[in-house]
Amino acid sequence: MHAPRSGPPGAAIAMRDVTKQFATEGPEPYTALRDLDLEVAPGEFCAVVGPTGCGKSTTLTLVAGLEQPSAGTVRVHGADVSGITPGVGFMFQTDAILPWKTVLDNVSAGPRFRGVAKGAAVSGARDWIRRVGLSGFEDRYPHQLSGGMRKRVALAQNLINEPRILLMDEPFSALDVQTRAKMSDELLSLWELTRPAVVFVTHDLEEAIALADTVVVLTAGPAATIKARFAIDLPRPRVVQEIRFERRFVDLYQQIWDALRTEVDLAYAQTTRISGEAGA
Amino acid sequence: MTTEVDSPASPAAGAAAVARRSRRRTHAVLVHTVQAAVLVVLLGGWQLLVQGDQHAIVLYGLPSGIFDRLRSWVTEGTALGSLGSQIWTTIEEALIGFAIGTVLGIVCGIALGRIRFLSEVFGPFIKVLNAIPRIVLGSVFVLAFGLGLESKILLVIVLVFFGVFFNAFQGTREVDRTFIANASILGASRWQVTRQVVLPSAFTWIIASLHVSFGFALIGAIVGEFLGGYAGLGVLIKNAQGTFDASGVWAAMVIMGVVALIAEWLITRLERRLLRWRPAQLSGPDL
């Protein structure tokens, strides 16, 4: 193995030779990631795509400090990750806003946890609720909101902390197609406000290209690693629903899909166990 | 429960709403009528079957005798003093024990649910304590702490604690991991996670145990008084039993039933208040 390198001084996230194993029932641990190198610059929007079960979410939990790598280093703004990483926001795939708190209490929770006085936290929360378009819903409980509205609450809940890094784990996958495109547009305009570095995990290549500066393709798991990295040079600001008709978008899609397809086939074969007989 | 909002947009819709409402009212009247009939048949049957036979009256009591006994307790007081003070003695024991047992159960359940080391150390002890018939401890408490309030309160605590404890423990372990991860990333300390994520989430479990536990609290207070005491409904029942006064036993039971129903109503109120963040439950018969 090579000597440990340190990332360029400015990198927001620098993962080096990261391996992550999970204990299983059997004697062999399950290797989710192997020798993964990933670097994200400050303010960069990086989308991670890959077949199901390839360890995309694991990558995020390592950056957030929810899990520790089995080998290799994870550095955030030059500091090794140990415990929950400060200055990070995380949008989960499932609803993670607290169902027993109102919208206002959910959004002001972050500042309150961090010791901001109640009045300041509440007025900050009202600002963010307005920015995500939920004014008038402050006193509702999450079960009284639609799926898209709950995602907005989650977004406001994270952005109010002004994270320098925003980690997103297929945040819009549970939404219908139209709501999803709308949310993507709003995400981009909100991202412009504070410009955190974003790692956006998705299995939807179209969504990845429309949103990101960089698309990273992971190999099929287990022991996934980075297969290829593509710079997306589409101009901003972008309109997610329209950008996919552009020539350049289609070219990029084809390029990346070529890299992704073999991994998707491989993952599919693994899950259905037809690789041998069918030769598909 | 949500009530339908009737805002008739057209005369037809208004008429339909009126028809719907009157159908609902008819249904409610039917249910209450049948309930009253069941009560009349049960009590009337009891009265008719027993009243001719002096021997049976001593053994089984009579609805009219129960009513007379209740009236004499209210107007003339019991052999132990006024009825109110007997009821209050039992309620006091049950309430103090219930409060202490519930708080202890919640604190211990959440502590053991959150801190693995504690659950590893104390798990076996709690299993053993739960396996023994705890009502027997009442005798120990009466011997050790005398015939006063303390022995009854201790028995109530022991009976209430375990139900609440196991529900709080299980509720703590069932908390959605995503909620905990999210709150931690938002900046919550371990204590803040316990207070603002684990406790509210476990409360659905804890509240469910409170309904059962208050029943246990009353049982604990009464059995404690049976085993030895100066006052309370348990002593009243014991005395009635000792003087072949079946109506007295029944009368005390009726009073206990009323107390339990009031407590149940209060706990349901508390439940609605604490769990108002939950979506309305799918409707079904309320019991």
From TrEMBL, chain B:
Superkingdom: Bacteria
Alphabetical keyword list: Cell membrane, Membrane, Transmembrane, Transmembrane helix, Transport
Membrane protein topology class: Multi-pass membrane protein
Membrane-spanning segments: 29-49, 94-113, 125-147, 153-169, 202-227, 247-267
Domain ABC transmembrane type-1, first and last residues per copy: 87-271
Cell location: Cell membrane
CDD domains on file: TM_PBP2
Pfam families named among the record's database cross-references: BPD_transp_1
Principal subcellular localization: membrane
Protein family: Belongs to the binding-protein-dependent transport system permease family.
Entry protein name: ABC transporter permease
Organismal lineage: Bacteria, Bacillati, Actinomycetota, Actinomycetes, Pseudonocardiales
